[in-house]
Amino acid sequence: MLINGVPWFDDRGRTVNAHGACLLEENGRYYLFGEYKSDDENRFAGFSCYSSPDLVNWRFERIVLPPQAGGLMGPGRIGERVKVMKCPSTGTYVMYMHSDDLHYTDPHICVATSETIDGEYTFAGPLTFQGEPIHRWDLGSFQDDDGTGYLLIHEGDIYRLSQDYLVAEEQVARQIARGGESPAMLKHDGTYFLMFSHKTSWESNDNFHLSAPALEGPWTYQGVFAPDGSLTCNSQCTFAFTLRTGSGPVHMYMGDRWSFPRQASAATYVWLPLHAENDRLSIPQYWGAWDPATGRPAELMGNEAGLDFSSDEPGQGIDIPFTGTRVALIGQSRPDGSYARVEITDANGAAVTSGYVTFYSKVPDHGYRYVSPSLPAGDFVLTISVLGEPSEWSNKHGERFGSVGTRLSLDRVLVIE
C-alpha cells in the first residue's frame, strides 16, 4: 500500500528523494523523476529517477541529470520542478526544469533530452519562445490525447510546444491564475483541469483549481479541491497522473510535504485519488494509506500498542523494542512540532537503519509519522529522540515560516510480524 506523509525507502534502504516530481508509465513500470535534495542548502544536486511496478516498491535508477560543470545548471544554481514527457514524433524523452541562481533572480526554463527514459539526459540550454529564453520559474507539463505537449507556467501561462517538444511555439493562455505557482493539469471527459498552489514559500496552503472546455479557455475558477482549511492535506501540488486500476482509471493528485531545511531526509509525499465531477475536482478525504491497484483506502495491519511520549527537550527520546519485520509510529504533527531522529538497531546493537522525521505541520494532523523499511524477521529496538532543531525558513522577502517549537508527540506503535 501507498502510505502518505512518511519517508519512503528504495531498494537500497535509502529515502526516496524525488521532489517537485512527475510520473511516467512505460512497459508496465512507473518512472518517478524529481529534485534530488540535500540537507545542507537549497542548491541543485541533480534530478533523480526511480522506478516501480506498483507505486509502493521503488528502485533507484540513477541521477538522470547531474550538476553541470558550468552554466545554467552548474555550481551556484538551483534546479526545480523537473518534468519529463516522451515526444511521440521523435521517441525522445524531453525534460523541462526551472534553473535559477541561489537568490531566485535569474530564472530560466531549460530543457534536456535522452533516448531512453532512465538514461543520463543531455542538457540543451534554455527553452525559447519566439527566439528568446523563457525567464520564468515554477512549471508543469501536460500531454494531450493527440500527443501535443504543453508547458504550464506559474500565474497561469500555457505554451504549446513544437512537434519535437524542444521549442515553445504558441502561447495559448496568459495569466489565468494570478498568484498561482506549481501548476499541474489533467483531462477528464473532455474537460481540462489546472491546479495551482498559492505562494507561501515551503509552507502548505489551500491549493485551488480552474477548469475549461479547451486549453485556450474560457477558464473558470473552481476554488479549493481538498478539504477547506486542510492546506491541501498539508501539501503542495506538483503533478497529476491517471492510474489504470481494475475498476477503471483513477486520477491521482501528487503533492509534496516540504521540510526545510531537511528536504532530503524528512520531506515526504502526499498522493491521493482525485474525483472529477461537474467541472470540479475534489479530494473528499485524506487517506493515510491506500492501495493504488484499487484506488481504495487501506490500513497497515499488525500488533498495536499505546505510547505516551511527548517532549521538546533536545536529546530526550524513547526506546521501543519489537520483534517483527516492520514497525510504524503514529502520532501528532503540529505547529510546535519539529524534527526527530529515528534509529533501529538489531539484537547485537548494530544500527540497521537511521534517519529523520518531522512532527511539524501548520495544521495539526494525527496519523503515520514513520514507517520503517522491510527488515529481516528478528528482534530490534527503535529509538526516537527529539532533535531540538526547528523546521524554519524565510522567504525572499524575509518573512519567517515554520515551526514554533521542537516537540515530538507519539501515542501508538504498530509492529508487523
Description:
- By secondary structure, the chain is mainly β.
- It folds into two domains: 296 residues, Tachylectin-2, Chain A; 114 residues, Jelly Rolls.
- It is 2% helix and 53% strand.
- It is built from two helices and 35 strands.
- It has a four-stranded antiparallel β-sheet, with no helix packed on it.
- A hairpin with a 2-residue loop joins strand 16 and strand 17.
- The radius of gyration is 21 Å and the shape is globular.
Give a short overview:
This protein has 417 residues and is an all-beta fold. The protein has helices at residues 231-234, 263-266, and strands spanning 2-3, 19-26, 29-35, 47-52, 59-65, 77-86, 93-101, 108-114, 122-126, 128-129, 132-133, 139-143, 149-153, 157-161, 168-173, 180-188, 191-198, 208-212, 220-224, 236-245, 248-257, 268-277, 280-282, 289-291, 296-297, 303-311, 317-324, 326-333, 339-346, 351-358, 365-371, 378-386, 392-394, 400-402, 408-416. The mean pLDDT is 96.
